[in-house]
Amino acid sequence: MIAVHNPQPLTEREGQLTRALREFDPDAEVRIGDDGGQLSVSTILDELEVIAILGGLGVDAAPRRASLDDRDDPHSSGGCCGGCGCG
Predict the structure, then answer these.
(1) How many CB atoms lie within 10 A of CB 29?
(2) Spans of biased composition, class Basic and acidic residues (predicted)?
């Protein structure tokens, strides 16, 4: 998750950020939480690339690491999330 605060309507902002990432990853997806403060980014790009691309759009991005206790962590059951390169 990445924090972002911008006065644009959320769906418009999601589209803008998704289009920017899709220049480098055609399957990239961005979702902004209902509170407008958290981004969820799905992409094959690495963290630094995402931060640089979003930073170019004025987003002060920083990754939020999932807790090791996270029950939704696919690694806990031997699976792969598809985003960390473990698989």
Answers:
(1) 14
(2) 64-75
Each as own residue / partner, the long-range contacts of residues 25-29 (CB below 8 Å, 24 or more positions apart, any chain) are: none
56 within some domain: yes
Contact at 8 Å (CB) between 22 and 28? yes
User: Cβ of 54: how many Cβ atoms within 10 Å?
Assistant: 20
Q: What is the DSSP letter of 67?
A: P
Q: What is the pLDDT of residues 24-62, one digit of tens each?
A: 999 999 888 877 678 889 999 999 999 999 999 988 888
Instruction: Evaluate whether 21 touches 30 at the Cβ level (below 8 Å).
Output: yes
DSSP three-state, residue 45: coil
Is residue 74 included in any domain, yes or no?
Answer: no
Examine the pLDDT at 1 and tell me if it is beyond 60.
no
What is the domain range of residue 48? 2-64
